[in-house]
Amino acid sequence: MLLQKTNEHDHQLTEQGTARRFFFKAGLGACALLALPTAYASAPRTSVKQLALLNLHTGERVKSVYWEKGRYIPGALREIEKVLRDHRTNKMHAIDLRLLDLMQLLHSRMGAKKEFQVVSGYRSPETNQMLAMQNNGVAKQSLHMQGKAIDIRLPEFSLANLRKAALSMKVGGVGYYPNSNFIHLDTGHVRYW
Prior knowledge:
Low-confidence stretches: 1-7, 18-36
Helix content: 40-55%
Mean pLDDT: 85
Order of helices and strands: HHEEEHHEHEHEEE
Radius of gyration: 20 Å
Distance between the termini: 65 Å
Largest sheet: 8 strands, mixed
Number of strands: 8
């Protein structure tokens, strides 16, 4: 009898824990939606989202509709992740969907016709550590390692104008590297350097 009560009690705790986790995740999702910056809120409604990317290290390109009919397209996301992989280790990682949306919005706001040139997308921890030892400007806990950062340029626009447009969106981090000819975008806290 005691064993049966304990099992029933454990089952109730498990159900409560599952319900709490679901509620917590749903609440976080709702908070994220409420906290979306005005850049997303003021973006024109579109039936598709697409990106065109050129990886400068591998020469690989992708031009893909990655969102359509209210959903992300898994096959298209894999194509993008392949082009944004760590070219040194060949490792792939999921890319933050908010980063893709940020890039798509930036491309649209700029009125760009050409593809983004990618200097760095995902970085494996091994590559990041190697780069950090060579250059003190590389963050040891870089968002590149989480698929939440990218270094890009748009050849039809000056780097300064691309930076201004990215800053005006007030989304994530924007780094300016004119000597290396790229800007850094990430989905971390709003900040710039």
